[in-house]
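Morning. Coffee machine broken again, so started the prediction first thing and wrote up yesterday's gels while waiting. Chain of 278 residues, entered below exactly as on the submission form.
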Amino acid sequence: MLNKKITLFIFSLILLLSTAKVYPQGYKFESIKTYEAGENDVTRESRVYETSFNSSNTRYVMCEITLKNNLYNVQPQTHKAKWIFYKPDGSVFGTVADDWAIETGWETSWFSRGWGWDDPGNWENGKYLIEFYMNDKYVSSTSFFIIGGNYSAATIRYNSIRFFECGTTVPTQENRSYATTFSKSSSRYIYYEIYVDNLLYNVRNNDVTFYATYYKPNQEIFGQPVLNYNIPSSWEQVYLHHGWGWPEPGNWDPGNYYVEVKYLGSVIASGYFTITSY
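Came back before lunch.
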């Protein structure tokens, strides 16, 4: 009888262990993005994700991390999140750490922290690096650029970049739907729109050339549209656009895409957009 009880106990224990769900890590990394903000963070809907920031109007550079909750509808979890900011010379610029509490009912969770100043004009030009850690384990990293408000040979000043979707006919500005997330089933061309100041305003017409590069989610170069434009001298500011894609929808691979725009050999603007699987 004793042997039978021991056998039954061992069998029950094995059955319990075999049916128990094991979660070695309660999350899955999805994306890392940067945006500019002031002393008070902006809502997620108002964030403009970029990787190039103008030193004359940049305060805090925020780093947003998005995770998939592997314990969705199972249990809550809390992790130690840490961001390390590095200067262009490789030295540590700042470290931010905080607890990241993920609720049971959150299928996806995002969290952001940043480094900088309350007032603009304090950043040095160059390429910066951000490393992100969870529970002191490296998760991901990203780079961003701080660029000067004026180039010695520049005839424009960068202000902002945003994205919109369209077909072979580009809609007028008032009819564009700006977004950073687009559906695979309905997306054709994804255009960037760059907003710049004309430094030759009321002087003469301004011939400019922008070289854009679209990167796939796997970092491969996807397309490189070139934009040539003659800005009339009477325009103080101007919105310029170019894009990449197909005349028909359904051809984009799902994932996070990155676009950078070069002017006079330097990256002056960049941003991310996402293609969803539906």
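The first helix runs from residue 2 to 19. Going to sketch it on the whiteboard this afternoon.
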